[in-house]
Amino acid sequence: MTTLATAFYQERDFINALYLVAIILFIVGLRGLTGPHTAVQGNKIAAVGMLIAVVATLIGEGVIPDGETALLIAVGVIVGTAVGIPSALQVKMTAMPQMVALFNGVGGGAVALIAWAEYRHALHLGVDLEEKVLIPTLFAAIIGSISFWGSNIAFAKLQEILSGKPIKLPGQQLINVLLLLVAVGSAAAIASVDSELLFVLGILVAAGILGNMVVLPIGGADMPVVISLLNAFTGLSAAAAGIALDNNALIVAGIIVGASGTILTNLMAVAMNRSVPSIIAGGFGGGDAAAAGGGDGVERGPVRSTSAQDVAIQLSYARQVVIVPGYGMAVAQAQHAVREMTLALEKKGVDVKFAIHPVAGRMPGHMNVLLAEADVPYDQLKEMDDINPEFGRTDVSLIIGANDVTNPAANDDPGSPIYGMPILEVDKSQSVIVLKRSMSSGFAGIDNPLFYDPKTAMLFGDAKASVSDITAEVQAL
Questions:
Q1: Could you tell me the pTM of the whole model?
Q2: Which of 76, 441, 471, 472 makes a 20 to 30 Å CA pair with 8?
Q3: Cα 417 from Cα 428, distance rounded (Å)
């Protein structure tokens, strides 16, 4: 009876059926991520799919009956769980991009290690890998290693362990080309001559250094695009590893991640009016570059300061107010205070909308998630193309911690690094109020002429405290 049961759950058709269920759950879960109301459920569905895929793989490879191997895997699962769950629970929303970069890097590193282990296993057995296995294995080693090390640099830049400024070496592009040639050349040598472990080490080392060298010259303004691109790399390397291992679930999951990451990368590049090759070649923008207030050598003139009471009066007697959230709102954790202010204004008959730029914050959807967390109705969140025609009939645009995505230099100054980038055209509003801690520049490291416009008023201070003060004044009117 035991033999029959074992034979049943290790049958290839049964394993493939489990993989099919997992793949369906992946797709259904991904679909759930298209909206904030279904995102949590979508994550849970995809997680169940991954659990089924992992169990199916362990059964299919005969790992579960093997006590020693099963114990090692159990230890790995326990360690990973002990690190992953507390990290996910404790991370602040402002640090979510860093966590995405770090977890993505772990995925790429895992794929590179799998490729390394499979190749060493083949050498140990004295078996020459077939081309249909060898080629995707080598591809996974190169791309996975690039993704791992590049993601670590992206994490360090976002966490401000490294400077957000572009860090370049003399002859940077030539160095990158040489490293790529070493990695690809080592792979070609493995495929064409007798297997040598040295060539595999050459692949991993060259690809690892290349991952570092590609991301170091990229500035903070382009980091969201880099994270998405590296995410696509990890997906492609996972799909290649799935082909090498003949694992259907890994192939499909990798393709889904690679395709979605590629689409997202392109969408963000378009939103910034920049090509992906130009970003990889070394972008503009450092977190501490070019102080505002004439950092570009142009005398802008004085700024007009205001008070919470004056802002409350303007907002209360407006017909339409558009709130533009940015990374400053995320840093101050002001989303709940913003929701309270919105409710207070709506009680006075003010029509309140939120303008969301595709790259507001440090990753796509950052503002949407923050506002959804504060129970802001999703129909109040307006994408850039939908809200821009509204600014001409908007009485007050309230900018909370946003900078580059509202910079009119993108439309007016051909010499600006962000010229041509689609922006939220708040300068067309009747009045503009900006909540900021200081006159410091945004991720692009350039000044914002909007702050010096005569119809713009600046309310300096912590965003959460400022919004709370405004709300109190609105309620007192």
A1: 0.77
A2: 76
A3: 22
